[in-house]
Amino acid sequence: MGAAHEHPLSGYTVVDLSSGIAGAYCTKILADGGASVVKAEPPEGDDLRRWSASGAEIAAGSDGALFSFLACSKQSVVADPEDDDAVERVHALLAGADAVVWSRGSRLAEHPRLAPQAIRQAHPRLTVTAITPFGLDGPWHDKPATEFTLQAWSGGMVGIGRGDPGRAPVHVGGQVGDWLSGAYAAAATLTSRMQSLRTGRGRLIDLSMLEVHILTLTYYPVTFHELLGRPFRSVRSLFVPGVATAKDGLVAIGCATGQQWSDLCAMVGHPEWIDPDKPISIMETAAKVAPELYAWVRERTVAEVRELASSFRIPNAPVSHGANIAGMDHFAERKMFRPNPRDGFLQPDFPYRLSPAVLREPEPAPRLGEHVVEPKPRQDKESSADSGLPFAGLRVLDMTAFWAGPSGTHLLAMLGAEVIHLESSTRPDGTRMIAGIPFTEPQWWEQSPIFAALNTNKKSVTLNFQTERGLALVCDLIAGCDVVVENYTPRVLDQIGLDYEAIKAIRPDAIMVRMPGFGLDGPWRDAAAFAYVIEDASGLTWLTGHPDQNPVEPYTLGDPNAGLHALNGLLLALEHRRKTGEGMLVESAMVDAAVNIAAEQVIEHSAYGALLSRDGNHGPVSAPQNVYRTAEQDEYGGRDSWVAIAVSTDEQWRALAAVVGKPDWAADPTLSDAAGRRARQGEIDEHLAQWCLQRTGDEVVDRLWPAGVPVAKVLNPHRQPEIPQLDARGFWETVTHPVAGKGRYSTLPMRFSDSAEPAHRRHAPLLGEHNTEVLTGLGLTEEEIASLAEEGVIGEHPAW
Predict the structure, then answer these.
(1) Are 60 and 50 a contacting pair, CB within 8 Å?
(2) What is the pLDDT of residues 601-624, one digit of tens each?
(3) What is the CATH number that goes with domain 623-709?
(4) Which of 108, 236, 574, 608 gives 20 to 30 Å between its CA and that of 352?
């Protein structure tokens, strides 16, 4: 392979001291980029080698299919933590590495000499990425937790009001928080690499999985509540139509805007459902007419519903799962799945596509202890003074809107990049409308907490690129930017001649990140893509909900997951440009990113013939695992207060039995192991429900947590500030917006040991606030800028 097509991370060595999905997915992203990943394991191996979500038997000497996917292109060495020489050999590996990814869970990683702080002290030029439930310090740093209880603490079980209000809140299935934590850890590790290349120093990255859950499973609820004095939604509800039953399967239809609701009413032949004289919300109207809507869907096939909905530009998708997704025409045409290089089952392809194609083709996962890796001496430059925030000096043109694109560019802005957010007065960013502020109120478009929380540190320029002058100025902006990010449907930029080839002609070393919903080609290329549609099409929806009902869309994670993966693709592209001077096209389709964090479904079906399905709040990791109603009223005076309990080990079960008083049912010896508890989980649920119902949530937590049992209150998202761990880690920063007011804003889910800079250094921009600054920088005079305003090419308020 020629130098121009060298892998971006060739020569970058990573030691993997993690266990479980989060660390494995982090190091998979790095290995895909060409890093040399050495997995250091105790003699019994990573628990993930013996894991199957469906309970499939893993033969001795072989590995679970999920491990075989996540460990592609890695090496395995064994070190016995009881052997001092073996621990010393691990330190020798670390001395020659660039980064280490660490999490609890293995005897080796939990050796005192291999704790994150000990590694950092011994190897100060090494980046140490630690992934833990709550962070390495703070009052909760050593509390037991599972992905399930973290969802409860974060508010993610409630999300933006998801779920049947007549039933218990339901978690998002598929261990999504672990996958998202891995993607964040990869981005943080690559970000640290950029600084290390400049300074010669490493750093400790302290990533909190709880904070990842907050940023990906909830929608800036604290900022929303504090700026507007009300929660995003005060009650849980099912989204209608959402997932509906057609003649031949499940189909999803969604309405995120008033226009889409009007179009849906016209499509089903009920224009009378649109009543301009009655200002009632779409959700309330849809709930009233739901029976008629669902009857209309039942009379048609999935293909018929989708064809009609697409013609009306109404977001829609088939509901995918492990058994059907690989055969869907769009995924088949785009070759989204490939055989595992060792075991042959189907696995997702990369979550982004880089052009030129510099990602490493997956190589077989290693057998336990298959490799002998000789430590390599590091050729470090002398340590120099820190050059500021990681992305200082990087200029980004942010042509994105809503959540997916802006969330990725926001991470860049918080970490020092100059991000110019491009809007127009005829088409402001859609999140400016998410507040319920009447259009009659002055500056209503500046009062959205969602826009405010997503866009701090950015600049706003309004240019109508549908005009000749506007498009010319966009091209001038591109010439001065390192990176261009956009998330329109592909036809938008194609129609105005602003695809990657055009951008490369303007600036040859530019990196263009395109974030279409379904990709730049394939049958679904031009389909409307909102978070819930991506969740439906990728399989994320399938695992969420109660088994006796249609699945429920998570409604949140499709967007931030896409932004996070786009950032990882961009970081690899920046590394490619650093080495070669070349620009790059990063095609980061939202659905490709979602398919990757839903990988376990297609892997389990292909490898074992098992269809993973939703099971309410039960799950494959813990038994018992569920939410239970508590004695107190909720903040609205209802009976909707719950706790989440997840027992992952036999030791935790014994501790729970002791806390509840060792009644006869808990002392039953058939419940002493996980298989027995899983077989009788319904009975256990009944007993625990009665026990919890006699206590408040705080009482349940105060009794179970000290005993070592993972437990959590199921918080409404806007109550996240009640968690003392977040304050201790400085997760909240107070920002004052000149129109929206003062409130707390979430920051980043990781702490860099050498950074004391606040994440939010400036409030989100007013519409067009930086027109004069940026256009003057392009050489325009005051008179020319005034002329652009008169012509409507630029503006500082919506043009309606």
Answers:
(1) no
(2) 999 999 999 999 999 999 999 999
(3) 3.30.1540.10
(4) 608
